[in-house]
Amino acid sequence: MLPNPVCYTLLWLWSLLGKATASTITQVPTLTAIGTVKPTLHIEFILTGFFGCFPPGTTFQQTAVATAVKRLRGLYPKHHWTWTLLDEQNATPGDINVILAQWYYHRRNPNWVHIVVGLACLEALPMSDLLGNYDVLLITSGGSDRLMRDRQRCPTFLSTTPYAQSGAVVCSLLNALNWTTVFIGLDSQPKASYHQFSFSQITAKLVDCGVTFTATTAPFSAGSSISRILMEFKRKSRVFLYFGEPPGLRNLLVAAVEFKMTHGDYVRV
């Protein structure tokens, strides 16, 4: 699992409290038990959608951010936590900075603390350049860049994405858990082009890290052939790596329940 972006957010807010001024953040005086005054903040998460490899895929992050905000409200009830989706149905990859600029100049509340969160992809660095000039925190979970280490170039850019290639990440996970034999399923549906790329990258790396694997391609999202695949998986391994769309994963898990393969003896990643 990747590190929780909320942890990075809280670290940012703690540092922000020390340098915030009344001109940038609305502060509501609150008396503590010892009589000191601390500010109440309004923190808003801005969701950008996924503008890189796919059209905006808000389903990837709406639930995660809504859950995080609910959790933060419970942990830190003194502050106000909200989130806003910049929902642009016809956006293209080149539009993201235009959308962010329109939000910044026309919709942003200057008295609030704003944090832009998103999956990002190739546009992560251009987003960082823009938001760095605005002094707005950017947290990505699907895009990173070596330049983010340069705090002069990327002063407000954080990422929960490991910079290592996906194959290295998967090999590290499998080796750490001592999983030496795995079964791999690739969804053959047309929308799975990115999953096909990841599949080829990771299977090539598995050969070099001592993991034996069996791979198969099937229309998981269509729901066909899954019973046969699960029986083959049961004979050869206990660890299933799935590459494909969410409907295919759902079909796989539903079939696993029917075959009584959900009691802790099998792992699906």
What report would you give on this structure?
This protein has 8 helices and 11 strands. The protein has helices at about 5-20, 60-75, 95-105, 125-135, 165-175, 195-205, 225-235, 245-260, and strands at about 30, 35-40, 40-45, 80-85, 115-120, 135-140, 155-160, 180-185, 210-220, 240-245, 265-269. The strands form 3 sheets. It has a 5-stranded parallel β-sheet, sandwiched between helices. The chain has a 4-stranded parallel β-sheet with strand order 9-8-10-11, with helices on both faces. It starts with a helix and ends with a strand.
Summarize the structure in short.
With 269 residues, this protein is of the alpha/beta class. The chain is 38% helix and 19% strand.
Would you spell out the secondary-structure blueprint of this structure?
Layout: H1 5-19, E1 30-31, E2 37-38, E3 42-47, H2 62-75, E4 80-85, H3 96-107, E5 113-118, H4 124-134, E6 137-140, E7 157-159, H5 166-176, E8 181-187, H6 193-206, E9 212-218, H7 226-236, E10 239-243, H8 246-258, E11 267-268
Parallel strand pairs: 3-4, 3-5, 5-6, 6-7, 8-9, 8-10, 10-11
Antiparallel strand pairs: 1-2
Helix pairs in contact: 3-4, 5-6
